[in-house]
Amino acid sequence: MVTLIGSPDSDLVSAALEHARASLRQIPDDGWGVQASGLEWTCRETIAHILDDLGAYAMQLSGKHRHEGWTPLMEFSLAPGRPPCMFWPEEEGGTQAVLDCLDAVGVFWSR
Predict the structure, then answer these.
(1) Stated pTM of the model
(2) Is residue 32 within 8 Å of residue 44, measured between CB atoms?
(3) Exposed, middle or buried, 98 (CB in 10 Å: 0-12/13-18/19+)?
(4) From CA 59, how far away is CA 55, in angstroms rounded?
(5) Which residues contact 95 (CB under 8 A, 6 or more apart)?
(6) Mean pLDDT of residues grouped by 10 in the chain (111 residues)?
(7) CA-to-CA distance for 24 and 52, rounded, in angstroms?
(8) Distance between alpha carbon 75 and the CA centroid of its chain, in Å?
(9) Diameter over CA atoms, the chain
(10) Domain coordinates of the chain in residue numbers?
(11) How far apart are CA 109 and CA 53, in angstroms?
């Protein structure tokens, strides 16, 4: 694993992810379309942004893309004026799909 000076260690990231899982587990399956507190985004758009950050950072630090610069990812918006994202949890999967996606992108940080 790459360790950056001043970056949190994997124990701290693992603890933060576990705290996030515990909090997100409380959201009902139909609660992801609700506006996130204090934001213009929905809860689903907000978690997609978090998944994007964790996933994109992991991809950049992995060194597996074999070229200089950023991994060639394309962001998309589901609707005009909505936040761009690369990862979007399957809506039919409800809260469990969100947790599964968080586990998938979070595993790099908690090794």
Answers:
(1) 0.77
(2) yes
(3) buried
(4) 6
(5) 24, 25, 27, 28, 29, 31, 32
(6) 54 85 95 92 92 82 67 77 85 93 80 58
(7) 17
(8) 13
(9) 42
(10) 10-110
(11) 12
